[in-house]
Give the backbone structure.
Amino acid sequence: MRLKDKVCIVTGAGGGIGKATTLLFLEEGAKVAACDISKEALESLEKEATEKGLAEGLKTFILDVTNREEVKKVVDEIYKTFGSIDVLINNAGVTKDQLLLRMREEDWDFVINVNLKGVFNMTQAVAKYMLKQGKGSIVNASSLVGVYGNIGQTNYSATKAGVIGMTKTWAKELTLRGAQIRVNAIAPGFIRTPMTEKLPQKIMEQVIERTPLKRIGEPEDVARLYLFLASDESSFITGQVIGIDGGLVI
Ligand code: NAD
């Protein structure tokens, strides 16, 4: 069991990657505080965990990561309930794609709020406890698009590049007083989830053609990377951005 008794928070836990991650963490012995804005998504997660006999370690929280007060309240409650917070997976994320000249202010604000401010809110609330404990692992969802850009994703690419900046900053800052707090980011390529379901089939076919491993990623591929970075197996890795894209950008 690679996360035995570790208390892990996963945001966006009802989505494609979040759900696979939560189930894998539970299989690996973690206690998971699964947070998502969608009640239905959390109910479906609970159902699947129960069917797999994994529900014992799971507690769900309806949480909008953009709401600072709520974030603080829920994180405090998680700490009180479990007695520690060992891992934070900042996985919640959204898209609202549009070409630059057509992007509305509300499309910009929506994506910035969830993908950037949400990560800030969660990490600020959790870091307090990790600093008190003197240890922890934080993993942030960036994206290939945060490194390379993408047509139609001005808002999204800004957030995913911003996440990389925060990751490196926190890797330096949260260790200032000798705490063993590691902070890393993952940069997935195209993964089969509700987020990418919206993309035209033609685009997906082109992506597969350009990918050396000739497939789209599965949520479980990403869950295993989160697991490695959450666990003590990655104990000397911090401040890194790990690509997971089947070789798409080499
Ligand atoms: P998804 O759409 O399947 O899941 C996202 C989840 O986040 C949903 O359950 C949604 O309800 C939740 N969410 C949205 N707004 C929220 C909020 N304000 N507060 C709390 N929860 C909220 O997406 P996914 O593909 O599983 O993506 C997970 C992460 O991986 C995201 O950060 C995404 O940007 C990143 N990513 C995904 C891909 C991909 O190809 N799927 C590629 C690169 C990066």
